[in-house]
Structures are given as structure tokens and as C-alpha cells.
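Final report, closing paragraph on structural work. Over the funding period we assembled a curated collection of sequence-structure pairs, and we close with a single example.
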Amino acid sequence: MKKIVILIFLFGFLSNCSNEYLGLNTLNISVGPDINFPLGTIDMTLGNVVGNLGMDTQNDSTGIYIETRLDSVATIYADSLFPEIPVASISDSFAMGTVQLPQFQLQNGMSLSQFGSAAGGTVAALINSLNGTTQPFPALGPASGGSYPTLGSSPVCEAILTSGSTTLQITNNWPVPVSLNVVLYDVTNGAVVTSFQFTNVPSGSSQSQTKSLVGKTISGNLVFDIVSVNTPGSSGSPVYINTSEEIIMNMSMTGLEAQSGSVYFPTSELSTTSDYMNFPMPSGVQLSKILVESAKLFYKISSPLQTVVTTELTMPNSNDGFGEYSIQINSGPLLPDTGTILMSNVELDLTSNPNASYNSLGYIVHSFLADISNCIEFDQSENLTFEFSIQDMKLKGIEGYLGQFSFQDSSSIDIDSIGDLSFDYLSFYEPQIDFEITNGLGIPMFFSLDLDSENQFGKFSEKVTNFPVSYPSEYIYPLERESVMEIRPEASDPFISLPNNSLKFEFGADIVSTFQQNAFENFIYKGEDLNANVILRQKSNIALKNLLISDTIDLGSPIDTSGFYRIDSLFLSLSYANNLGLEFETTLDFLNSNDSIVMSKNMSLMDGIGDVTVSLTKAEIGRLSEVSKISIGLNLSTVGLPESITLFPESSVLMNLSLGGKFKLKVVDLRP
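Its predicted structure, as stored:
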């Protein structure tokens, strides 16, 4: 607090008188016993005093206004308005179904020498003797041709087929026509898969037969079992005989579908499913966008396959800072099929569902095999199932409509003083109370306020309802919008009276966030809050008692009293001009160099112009030599309490403080 400026002018001083004698006829004086030494002048203008309180002030022709700011008497945090996001979950499954196998080829051949070995006995000897000769080929058979493994790559380890066929093509490279019976035999299962009967296949030509494999079980261990070989020979015509020439067997497997078993999957793809996850929001809440600060994504994946299955969950039109939000989960043998994934800083679009404009999150679940280099056992009747749910969601922001709802809050403060002023009580009339509302919440809101002020004069109330709060309609920075709600209490009410003035604020807010009332979607983002500050402007229409203002005059050094023996008596004189409209009690404390009080004197000043005189005792005069400072305290009270007065900036008090006395004076007539 700045000190009141007090100007002290020393207009006189005391000095010792000489002992010279003057003739009376040489003097031209009027002799009197009273002397007066001005000590100083106090010129106090109210505008300067209030301005030096260290507070925000304003003044005009109607008075002085002291401004007090009460910050954050009401705050609505964005996250307090976020609706609770209920658990959203999906559950789906798909049957493994049949596996379509690619076309594949198996082949082998039977040479004349192999046939001979299989037939044995005289046939074997005969064929060996014919090698490399040109002669008539004899009739042979029927005789067994032996078993020949199928050569080639098969995608089947073992499977039951629901469709498909096999075609066996015989190419006869022997020099004579041949008839043969070929059985396709499954060694693993010990069963005949199918058989082929070829009759009189000419030399150098081919014949084909196709057989159905529906309902057949096949494995990867198939053989061509040539049950019977028969040839009429060359009918006496000589032919060149090369026993390494073969009957070629080419088998083609086409259109195979396996319903169960163990096969090499032709592709890693298992299933792709797209749908929508709906958030069961409360009535009236329609969200188009959610900014997720954090959430828990629970999953459960059940796979019948004895291999690693990768499940990929993608949320189209979402954004996690790198692109669409997507996760991959591996499940299968030795891997957990349940777990939790932490989602963080993800923006979710809830408008992609053509059948629901809000609250619906699109998703794509893509399942595929992590490795298809080995046979995988499956059954078409078994299902791969997945379950996902989003829980414990914490929000950074939302867009859409929040519906209609209300909430209340309250706060209270006690006001005991202004600056460091000291007083018994200080009452303000005609205060101006402004609620400065700064709002970054993009939702329409109407404020209500019940304000109660309770002090020694009673309880005073003010009420405001349906005050429209300005808000940003678009998410474009800066978002903050300002509103001012004005409260003007009755001029006759001591609405603020200090000390022990309690202010209680009860707030209400009505939210109206529906598409019927709003052309544009609303939004709330964390950190963009609503804050209300109170600006209390207290007009200098006041009633007060014992308001103390003080300052200290530093005399520089103790008062020189060496000449006071010539003075008969001393007194303090205070003349004043007071147009404040206040009564004064003035206390003068005379201080020594250690700031200890040597003596004190009190004076009363009335409104208007006057003089006050206070005598000093001989003891007090004797102690003036100890005085180096004078502390002046002004104790102000309103005339005719509790009525109020209005103080103006130019209101002032002028006081002239002086030290008066009476000389010891003796006149002697020395004339003869």
C-alpha cells in the first residue's frame, strides 16, 4: 500500500535570546504572550488515498469504484459433461466350411521290364530276352503289373471329399496294344479309392477315364495298383522291342473340396467380416465422433485349427495418428485366446453405418492363417469365433448431440477486508456484480444463479435465470467465447458489509444439445472448459466505522528543546477543512528513534471547517526532546450511522498542524 503523502513545512525555529537591553523608545512593536510554530500540512484527497490501496479502482462523476476480482467461482470442466460411454461389443463366428483344393497332378509309368518283373516266371524271362530285338511280339497276360507310387505334389495329407473328380490318362508306348485294369489305392487307409479299366489301347496312343471322388477319403500316400495287364501281341508282325518303354499314367485331380481332414490350405485367407458395433447411448445422446484418450479392448478368439490363426480388427475411418486403427491378434496352440489391448489417442467415426447416423462404429474382422506350409487339420462343421468389446473408455472429446440435461453447483466465499485497511465495519451500497464467463464448450447452455450475501445487516439475495451463455459453434481456434451476466442489487441494501460478509453462489446450467435446436453438431474437448469469474465493483456509497488510515512523519532528528525554558506553556493546534462527510478521530503518536511511543494525543474533527487545540503538560514538553517521528492516525466514521454517504474522488481534508506556546515575558522600565 502506498503511503499517504503528507507535506511538512517548517516555517519557524526556536533560538536563544541575547541579554542586551533596549530602550523602549527605540521599539516599535506589539508585544503579546502567544507564539505559533507550524509543524506541517496534511492535504488528503480521497481519489489519491483509494488509488494507493494497491487495488483496481475506477472513478467518475458518480463516485469511486473499488474493483475486486474473484477468480473461478464457477468452473465447468469439459470432462464432467462427457457422457458415460457404455460397453460396445460384437460377437460373430463362421464355420470353417469346405476347403477348395487346387488342381494337382500325379503320375508314374510302367515299363515292359517292370511288367515282366511283376509278372515273374517265364513272362519275366521272355520279356528280358526280347529287349533290343525286332521280331513278332507274343501275346501276354492277363498278369499283374505291380504297384507304382504316385509321383507329384499333393495338397492332401488326408481328407474326406465332398466334390471333385480324378482323371487318369494312359499313354501306351509299348510296341503292341494293351488292356489294363488300374486301381487307385490309398496305402494310409488301406482302401481302394477308385479303379479304371482300359481296353485295347493302341501303341502310341492315349486313353482317359474320369471318376468321381465325392465321398471318398484320400491321403497323400496313393499308389497306382495295376491289377491286370493283357496284350494280344503283334499278331505275327515283327516290331522293335525296347523293354524300357513305358505305359505312362497321368492322373489329374480337379474340383476337389474337402469337408474335413488334414490338408495344405491353398490360401491363408479364412474369413473377412464387416459390420457395425453399436454403442447403446442414453436417450438423446447422438455422437458422430469420439476421441478416445484410453479404453480397454477385450477379445476372445476360439479357433478349432491346430495352427496359429491371425485375426485383424480394423475400424474404418478411425485415426490413431498413423492411419486407421487396426490390431492383429495371434491365437492357436500355446497362445492365449483371450486378452486385453489398451487403446489410446484414437479418433472413432460413428457415422459410417447407412442405417444409423450416430453411435455406430464400423469394423472389419479379417482372419487368416499365419503359416500354410504344412498340413492343417480341420472340420467343416467347426466354427472360428471372435468376440470384441470396448470398455472403460476415457474421452478426450466428443462431437454430436448430448441431449437435454441440467446440473447444479455451488460455492461460497467470505470477504473480510479490502487491502490492508483496518476498520470496525465497512458497508457498500450499490455494488456492481459482473459474472465474466469464458466458455470453450461447444454446446448451448443457459445459466441460472442464486446469489446470497449475508452480513451483520441481514441476508440479501439476487436471482438470474435463463441467461444464454455464448459458445463456439465450430471447432476453430480460438474456441473461447465471453459472456457477462450483470447483477445490480437494490441501491438501499448494504449488500456488501465487511468484515464477515459471506457470499454464496448457487449455479444451475441447462444443456440443450439436440439436432432440433441446433443447426450444427455440438462438441466438447477436454481442456476447453467454462470458467466464471466474479468482478465486484463496490461504489463509494458507503457507511463505515473506525476506518483507520495512518502515516509517519520522520523529523530527521529529535526536536531541539534547548530554548523551551523561555516558554511558559505549549499546545498542539490543528485547523482543518473537511468535506468528506465523515467524522474524524485523529491520533498523534510521538515516537522516538526506536519507534517507541513517547506520548499520544487525540483530537476529534467534525465535518466542515474547525480548529482543535490540545495542551501539553510540562512532563510532555520535557519529553519532546526524545521525539524524532510523529505517527498520524485518522480514524474515520460515517456521520449519522448506519446511513451511507457517497464519496467522490475530489473529496478531501486539509489539516494544518502547529505547535503553539506562551512566552515568559517581563518588561522593565529602566528610565531614571
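DSSP finds five helices and 44 strands in the chain. The first strand starts at residue 34 and ends at 45. We thank the funder for supporting this effort.
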